[in-house]
Design brief:
By secondary structure, this protein is of the alpha/beta class. The protein has a single domain, classed as Spore Coat Polysaccharide Biosynthesis Protein SpsA, Chain A (Alpha-Beta Complex). 28% of the residues lie in helices and 26% in strands. The strands form 4 sheets. A 7-stranded mixed beta sheet has the order 5-4-1-6-11-8-12, with helices on both faces. The protein has a two-stranded antiparallel ribbon with strand order 2-3. Strands 7-13 form a two-stranded antiparallel ribbon. The longest helix has 11 residues. The chain is globular and about 60 Å long.
Length: 250
Amino acid sequence: MGVWRSRERLGSLKAFVLAGGAGTRLSPLTSYVPKGMIPIGGKPFIDYVISYLSKHGVKNIIMLLSDADSEVFRNHLDDGSKFGVNIGYNITPRMGTAAALKEAAGHVDGTFVVYYGDVFTDLDLSEMIRYHKAKGAVCTLALSTGVKIDYGVGRVDREGRIEFFAEKPILPEYPVSIGVYVCEPGFLTYLSAGTDLAANVLPQIIAKGEKVYGFLTKERHYDIGSFKQLDEAKDILKPEKGRKKQSAVS
């Protein structure tokens, strides 16, 4: 199914929000509600994503959804008017991120944002877009230097002796992808490299020598891909009153 929208575009820059995943790591919760529609802080998670994009001037948003749960999103978001944006939909059978974007490629008409719909961040997207244009990049990735690695890591010399070890460190020399890209239409020519943007498309486009840049930020991101991560997001996004009350108790 192609993009549906009921109002005129409000601006030129579009964001394609990837929200068609099955959310298997959140089963059985996602058997009843799509991952992006899980309530956090009194409203569906996707509301935070839409509000974030709108705050940075991205007023044309296309939801890339699976036909298995698109109706729930459409019933809630409608045409986007309650958020002050224009929301459209590209609905397909469930597929990978690259394949989903490829299905909506006909609606790319200039610089565009790709946003993973299970992610929340305070990244300065406006500055990232300016950086992308200044570099003349085909694709710019948001990379965080403030994310802790989930495991203890070590470095071993040639004899097997450990010369460095740290438990769950932050490794700024290996910044972590946040799940936000700014791209040019030329990026679309690489979508046939595989079904997944991160695993298949980005390695190929980099190997081809295209201008792919990283926008570094100290801001970390919060996703809701697992129950542990969901709990972290709930803590960050809980109403201010709830956070203050919890702090007073502790």
